[in-house]
Amino acid sequence: MNPGDVATNPRWTLLVPVLGVILLVATWGRELGWFPVVIVSLGLGASVLAAVHHAEIVALRVGEPFGTLILAVAVTVIEVALIVTLMSSGGDKAASLARDTVFAAIMITCNGVIGLSLILGTIRHRVQEFHVEGASGALAVLTAMVTLSLVLPTFTSTTAGPTFSGPQLAFAGVASLALYGVFVFVQTVRHRDYFLPVGTAADEEDVHAAAPSDRTAWASLGLLVLCLVAVVGLAKIASPTIESGVLAVGAPISSVGVVIALLVLAPETLAAVRAARLNRIQTSLNLALGSAMASIGLTIPVIGLASIWLAGPLHLGLGGTEMVLLALTVVVNVLTLSTGRATVLQGSVHLVVFSAFLFLAISP
């Protein structure tokens, strides 16, 4: 390993995955007091940070836009794992957990991540430019996916409540997966240049950071797998504490999904903000919109399969307040992404919408 590789993988990122798995083995299946729960929570947070770090190392090796794609998929794997583990032990009260988490991920990425990236990026660079073709295309795919998966269940009549019948859920899962697959093909093969930072050609070497060696990339891939195992297991252990904390502050149980999404997406938010401050807002948009699409395109099919053996109903349809916020999010994103240029004004609008989402999640 050369000196650059040592800097690429700080010591803590090498230790956390191993310590996370050891902590998981030591606490699995045991009744925990408040102090062990604190340790588990710290281990969970550190494992998430380390997982995204190693995903970034692998992403740096393969270059853009493959890098943001790998990071988005890695984050979504963590999200899906958390949802399935919590639903498997939550019973009927976890019926809406998948919907709440996916919706929260969309609001966080499309408003929080984009808004924060635009504000911090434009404060430094005044105006930031991006490819309309890539950003607007991603938004079109995302809008179709979220409508088919989270809006339609509220209006279908085959089953009662905000649910899909078996065939309807299968169609939504296949449609989401197909749309995501086509998007990945366009992003990485057919029109890769639409998703590169403005001024970067598709065949140019990504020079904003030195690529790690093959040895480091493979090591990070292995450590990423360990991190994911630790995250899934530790989340299972910490889930009763998360639910108790939400109920203790008087927030609705749906806020559990918001907490999960915030936890999983926090490191990715930092990555998007770093890219924006380097005047690479296209990378920030790729991360935000790509994560939102991966959240639906991968979560809905997996949850659909998991519902075969998970007990209880699966509520996917959004309520009236959520649909209003979703419609507002789509409109604001269309207006922001339609010109290829953004200023601090657009970022401020996104953050206000995000603030409204957080406020209404706590006080519906």
UniProtKB/TrEMBL annotation:
Keywords: Membrane, Transmembrane, Transmembrane helix. This is Ionic transporter y4hA. It is a multi-pass membrane protein. InterPro entries: Alkaline_pH_Ca-Antiporter (IPR052946), NaCa_Exmemb (IPR004837). It is found in: Membrane. Its main location: membrane. It holds the Pfam family Na_Ca_ex. The chain crosses the membrane at residues 12-28, 34-54, 66-90, 102-123, 135-156, 168-186, 218-239, 245-266, 287-310, 316-337, 344-362. Residues 39-188, 220-362 form the Sodium/calcium exchanger membrane region domain.
